[in-house]
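If you are new to this repository, start here. Below is one unmodified record pulled from the training split, so you can see the exact layout before writing a loader.
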Amino acid sequence: MGTKLNVAVLGTGIMGAAMARNLLRAGHEVSVWNRDAAKTEPLAAEGARSAGTPAGAVEAADVVLTMLYDAAAVEQVIRSAAPGVRPGTAWVQSTTVGVQDVPALAALAAELGLDLVEAPVSGTRAPAEAGQLLVLAAGPESVRQRVAPVLDAVGARTIWTGDDPSTGSAARLKLVVNSWVIAASNAAGEVVALAQALGVDPQQFLGVLDGGPLDLPYLRMKIDLILNDHLEPASFAVDTARKDAHLIVEAAAGHSLLLDGAAAYAARLDRVAGQGRTKQDMAAAFYASRQ
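And here is the target side for that same chain:
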């Protein structure tokens, strides 16, 4: 196998836990921390070191990987980790954040002596668990080789978007990708809602698309989750999709764009979150169609 690293994973939700497992399978030493300590217990049983604090997790780490909810959580956790950070440690920042958040995180990295690699990932639960995520990364050549074993363990492919992580080139691409993911998921929910209201079997609709240019595996997957009420455990949860939808709308507004569809999808996700469905798969946006 390749280089063996000591990796600290801060945040062990759906994605972070899967990434930690794949790092363990690749033979790396893995320390994990999560705000809810219970979420680190299964990883500890598989060989990870569970830490009680972010600072404790990053002690001796060659690479720190953050997979948290949003930029505010990232800043808070990294500042908490600061007492344990060694200057020159590589920081793989995989949380999806807004374009406007990236410069502040880059400044935080510089303040703490961390070598930042912006590295949001594209993919949901299944590809994360299989180590088949697509990594969208930005960072200097001098750091890329150091973090390559980590990126190779969690992803099938890495697309480098630039050398300077402070420009947000990877975050920009991630928001564009997620705008399509969220649009397609919401469209699946609306199609099912309309079909049922009009007395059309959704399977008949899929039969019309079968084998044609509009037939998408992703559409079929989301429709299946809705029809079979398999919205938990989530592949991409409502609360995370909702956060990303608002980041997309904000990024567009910052460039004088009005994305009516994205704004509507954000509103739909807000409505289903208000129904207590935050931890369900974002296909639950189907329920936003009910008046």
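Two things worth knowing about this chain: The chain has two domains: 6-167, 172-289. The CA atoms of residues 152 and 225 lie 30 Å apart.
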